[in-house]
Every structure is written in structure tokens, then in C-alpha cells.
Amino acid sequence: MEHTPFWASTSFWKKTAIWVTAGSFLLLIVLTFDTMSKVTAGTGRVPDYTVINKRIDYRFDDKKHHSMPVIEGDAPLFGRILNEEEAERLVTLGKKTIQAKNCMNCHTLLGNGAYYAPDLTKAWLDPAWGGEAVRPMLMKMFLMDPVANARTYGSGRKMPNLGITEQEAEGIIAFLKWMSAIDTNGFPYNFKTAGGR
Ligand code: HEC
């Protein structure tokens, strides 16, 4: 019988499969922890939920060549400063409502979703909401009755009425405000904000 070279033997490939699987598994664990440390609220690029008590702006950073969220001063949402627990509860209500109503069927959030309607990552900072004083109220009116308060941006597209309650609308607005404070490396590119440049 002919001699089988080691690289063509069954045992070599068995060992290779075991090492590659074990190595990938370890890499996956490392990457999971590395990602968690960057996407968890209150770490690095993602502020904790009490950021909804602050004024959020989005300004071009000349060194980084893209816009960065700027968090400065107090600007309580709906006139109340929320503690960490209350802020998390409100943002979570917004997140769950957004999932339950499947907003991603039309919109993108942080780039994920559908392309029928505008990306919502920085929707809180959309200049169309007017000044800071009226913004939460206008957003609430829009979310609770988007048909009557449609702006459509010349696209002719309208958001349907999704039966959002006042409490759910406040949660969504808190979620959108929190999301707008995430450092997304300049995404969406070229977004012009209310106070920004
Ligand atoms: C059937 C498609 C559709 C669904 C589902 C939908 N939207 Fe919209 N949405 C639109 C369209 C179209 C617009 C732009 C028209 C307008 O502003 O009147 C819009 C606009 C918006 C805006 C304004 C964006 C900006 O940059 O100012 C917000 C905020 C928003 N939607 C939030 C939501 C939320 C939250 C949900 C889920 C609860 C949702 N939408 C579900 C179609 C949709």
C-alpha cells in the first residue's frame, strides 16, 4: 500500500478541525466581551441613560473629520430631571415600543432597517423640530398623529398612525434623544443639526 502523506491523513484533519473550532470559539468569547464594553450604555461611545437630562448637540470635529455628539448643560426632557433608574425605564419603554410597532419596517436605526423613511439615529437633532423648547412637544404630536402632522419632506410619503399612546411617545422621544448622543463615528454622514454646522 502507498504511504499517505501526513497532511492527507484523517487524523491530521481531525486535529485541525478541533483546533480551528476551539480557536474560533475563544475568539468569539473575546470579541463578545470586547463588543459589550463598547455598546453597553455608560461606556465609551454610548452614554448612560441620564444623558436625556442634558443638552445634546452634534458638531463637526476638524481633527476627526466627522461630526461628534457634544453633551453639555442641563436640558431636562418634559421638564423633569430623571435619576438613572427612571431614565433607563423611560428609554426602555421607548425601545420596546419601537420594537413592538416595528418602526424598522420603514426606518433605519443606527443604519439597520428599511429605507422607506429617514434614518432615526439623529432624528432628535433634526432642525425641522424647531427650537429646544418646542421640540419634545412637536415630536410627541407627530408620533401620536403622524398623518395630521406630516411633513413628508417633499417625498409625498406619510407615516401611518400607529396608535402610540402619550406615555409610549415620551418613551420613544427619550430613546431617540439617548440614541442621538451615541458617538457613531459620524454616521449618518453629512447630517445637519438644529444648532450644528
Ligand atoms: C409605514 C412606514 C413607517 C413606519 C412603520 C414608521 N414610520 Fe416614522 N416615518 C415614516 C415616513 C414616511 C416619515 C417621513 C414623513 C414625515 O415626516 O411626515 C417618517 C418620519 C418619522 C420621524 C421624523 C424623522 C425626522 O428625521 O425628523 C420620526 C421621529 C419617526 N418617523 C418615528 C417613527 C417611529 C418611532 C416609528 C415606530 C413607532 C415609526 N416612525 C414607524 C414612515 C414610517
Describe this structure in words.
- This protein has four helices and four strands, in the order H-E-E-H-E-E-H-H.
- The protein is α+β, with helices and mostly antiparallel strands.
- The chain has two domains: 7-39; 49-180, Orthogonal Bundle (Cytochrome Bc1 Complex, Chain D, domain 2), CATH 1.10.760.10.
- The strands form two sheets. A two-stranded antiparallel ribbon has the order 1-2.
- Strand 1 and strand 2 (66-74) form a beta hairpin.
- The protein is elongated and about 85 Å long.
- The mean pLDDT is 92.
- Bound molecules: heme C.
- Heme C binds next to loops.
Q: Could you write a compact summary of the structure shown?
A:
The protein is α+β, with helices and mostly antiparallel strands and 197 residues long. It has two domains: 7-39; 49-180, Cytochrome Bc1 Complex, Chain D, domain 2 (Orthogonal Bundle), CATH 1.10.760.
